[in-house]
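Give me structure tokens for this 202-residue protein.
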Amino acid sequence: MSAARKAGAAGAAGAAGAAVLRDLHAVDHAVYAAVATTATPALDSMLRRLSRAADHSKISLGIAAALAVFPGRPRRAACTGMAAVAVASASTNLFAKKLVRRRRPDREAAGVPPARHVPTPASASFPSGHTASAVAFALGAGAVLPAAAGPLWILASAVAYSRIHTGVHYPGDVTAGAALGVASAVTALAAGEVRRVAAPGG
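Here you go.
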């Protein structure tokens, strides 16, 4: 293939990629707007409180503290879950947010009801740190303690949605946060397995 044809093919691929990104951006904003303008008075207060409770991973910390009371698998689940949260938090705040620097949604312009409002963080919007940490804990702890996996996933999903419902994140931010949470949990689980094998008698 000649240089000109290669350049043309590269240009076409780049244009197609840009078009896909524009479409995804449009869908992201459309879903956000749909959530913002859908009246859900019975859910607003509940999801606002849940979103605030998840600040600084307080929910995960509380669950981990309760699990750690019991020796064996529950305590290991607590340790693994919090290790996953630590990886997710560092990855989100030290790298991802600084790399992308996406602005937070304008929830007043979008019509998010004041009854849903929580304080808007000063950090970048992408990805959702609340979601990353909640998913990381759910997967990390749930992998060690399967009986808790279902409730933890439901809780993490509710926390993730609450960030869209309260207007501080776009759906794309939450999706990226969930993916980062999964990767963080996998990292924590792998590190735990390495330590277990390396330990005497492991």
